[in-house]
């Protein structure tokens, strides 16, 4: 059988900015490095990440690993986390909302692509630094409608999730009725579906959607070196507090994004996210409900969270990151 390969840039699946980005044709002032192995190697040469930040990151990852029960690759995952102590180790990150049963197939594809890219870079003879794949849980997202149902054999199975709650805090007991419906549809074959049984076990053994999703991803891909992070941690937010203060007092992101949106429109590029007056919110520590941040003054006692526009900056602040795989 003859194999034919096509460049993504030559297919009509992407909007014009993605094609320009992949072809390196029209100058895109918003990118620092080319989307290639060589570009990532250049980023590795320039990226710095403070030792104290590494210690904090490693501590959080160990803490969150301990919240996950009975992993077959725990020793390997622990060793991966400890490697981040080294100044020569960096990360390539992907992420997703916390869909029950991981959600659409492209979630797994993004994870596999991230693992594969890290392996390719680590195997490169010219590279002296190492990269580790990371899966970012969108645990502070509040769009429960987008994750509240799955489709199985043409039928929708809905989960009764509360509105406006940080999805990582959703109790796993709210998934049990939906799991029973799935089990009924699978019938006698339910025991034979290892992925279903793995997920069911995670939702039974863990308290919330963040912990259970960590368990699932680690069990599936921990042996391949993936690390999973839930960035809704006070100690991580402290590293972001200066940017938060500037955002609240000066609305920096909104001002920048208005100019960026105008530039995109002039070049005929699709602009994905609408700029808001403020790109932060807070999560109540008891109810886990989200509240928009208005014109309030910055308070270091508040646990501020970034929206979709500020989240990449938060990622780059707390991770020794050199690339992100989105979509």
Structural overview:
By secondary structure, the chain is α/β, with parallel strands linked by helices. It is built from 12 helices and 9 strands. It has helices at 16-23, 37-46, 51-66, 74-83, 105-122, 176-186, 194-205, 209-221, 234-237, 241-250, 252-267, 311-318, and strands spanning 89-96, 130-137, 149-152, 155-158, 227-230, 280-283, 290-292, 304-306, 321-325. The protein has a 4-stranded parallel sheet with strand order 5-2-1-9. A hairpin with a 2-residue loop joins strand 3 and strand 4. Helix 3 runs antiparallel to helix 4 (74-83) and helix 7 packs antiparallel against helix 8. The longest helix has 18 residues, at 105-122. The protein is globular, with a radius of gyration of 21 Å. The protein starts with 15 loop residues before the first helix and ends with a strand.
Distance from N terminus to C terminus (CA atoms, Å) equals 31 Å
The overall strand count is: 9
Give the proportion of residues in helices: 40-55%
Compute the average pLDDT. Answer: 89
Major sheet: 4 strands, parallel
**Residue windows where pLDDT falls under 50 for at least 5 positions:** none
Beta-strand residue percentage: 5-15%
Order of helices and strands: HHHHEHEEEHHHEHHHEEEHE
Which descriptor suits the 3D outline?
globular
- Across the major sheet, the strand order is 5-2-1-9
Q: Radius of gyration in whole Å, from Cα?
A: 21 Å
* Class derived from helix and strand content: alpha/beta
Number of helices: 12
